[in-house]
């Protein structure tokens, strides 16, 4: 799948083709830093003065690169498709190589960051268990009731939460076998076919 | 058996056939057990014609004595012999003792179950629901392509009616971890049961 770049986007990136590769590399570094750590508009002013261009041009070039890296990572563009997509920008071969290298190096990290933005349900983190036999309570002495205490830790966007449950042996076995069924389901022909076909 | 003085007096009244005739006694015992098990409430006493002949104060005391006796006996797992000898001390005749023991034996397991659930407990897991999704993409990310499980634990709490759900999601690896830990628990339970 190729990345379709709009005319406007290409205009914004045009500045880069007039620059030396070393300077372009600096632009790439800044744009990646923006993606990973957040933007810092002060840099535009300094860079614009040094290069003798409009502040806006610098801003657009950096943002253009940010968009290029983000979109390619989002769509998980392959190596060859990325090269072909970038080719339409008319950069030097050296710069194209540099873009590819930086894209491949940072793709996973960018995808991880993008993943954090998406809606997230609280997910399983850890489970602790304890096996008790209840012997007596205020309302009933002389008991022998086996019970299992479960402490379930869940995580949601970095916040951990834990809840305590209890259950009896029969329900524990039922719970375990039911979740084993769930795991086994993924290995069925039906699920495997779906997984194979969604690429 | 450790029964307080007031309740003991109530039991003594309950054994006096002059104050509580045979028929009323049986009705009283029947209603008392139903109330303990939550099948009836105390308005049943007013509704019953059989109990009209009994002085309301006496009835109240006798009821109080009976409830205390039954709960205490189940709580401490007293034998029928213990109960009988205690009631003999309260001057009950053997017919009444026998009748009470008969009703008591029949309902004891239910009362035990009731008392064992009368306590503070953590939500009790009684079932689990699961759903398997293939996570394809979201607003920010294409080709996520990972199996995702949604797990919903059904729990019961003694002071609430019905079930509540506890939901969380799991990746394949996380579910494997969870199942592994649950299996450990099952195994250790199995070992313990063979001891």
UniProtKB/TrEMBL annotation, chain A:
Pfam family, one: COMM_HN
Organism: Paramuricea clavata (Red gorgonian)
Source organism, top-level taxon: Eukaryota
PANTHER family linked to this entry: COMM DOMAIN CONTAINING PROTEIN 2 (PTHR15857), COMM DOMAIN-CONTAINING PROTEIN 2 (PTHR15857:SF0)
Stated name of the protein: Uncharacterized protein
Automatic annotation (TrEMBL), chain B:
CDD domains referenced in this protein's UniProt entry, alphabetically: Commd3
Residue runs in coiled coils: none
InterPro entries: COMM, COMMD3
One Pfam family, short name: COMM_HN
Gene Ontology biological process terms in this record: sodium ion transport
Similarity comment: family membership: Belongs to the COMM domain-containing protein 3 family.
PANTHER family: COMM DOMAIN-CONTAINING PROTEIN 3 (PTHR31159:SF1)
Name assigned to this protein: COMM domain-containing protein 3
Lineage: Eukaryota, Metazoa, Cnidaria, Anthozoa, Octocorallia
